[in-house]
Amino acid sequence: MRDWQVERRRRTRHLIELGGLVVKSGIVDLTEDDRAVILGALLWMAEKLRSEERERALALWAEKGKKA
Q1: Entry's InterPro entries (predicted)?
Q2: 55 band by pLDDT with thresholds 50, 70 and 90
């Protein structure tokens, strides 16, 4: 198998795992699979991570994730 194929499969697996987290969180059902809402929520998270609230948000989200 060529290097680019291995890398493509690795990237595909990574994207599938991230999608699984979105489903596992319940966001898909809670938004009725509204992709604009889901993207908006993710963009809001990215804004938080670029702000002064970064450390607090990371700590809060990490704790919630570990409990889940």
Answers
A1: Conjugal_tfr_TraD_a-type (IPR009444)
A2: very high
Dump the DSSP string for 1-67: --HHHHHHHHHHHHHHHHHHHHHHTTHHHHTTT-HHHHHHHHHHHHHHHTSTTHHHHHHHHHHHHHH
What is the domain extent for residue 49?
Answer: 32-68
Distance CA 60, CA 45 (A): 12
Please tell me the total count of domains within the chain.
Answer: 2
**Do residues 36 and 56 share a domain?**
yes
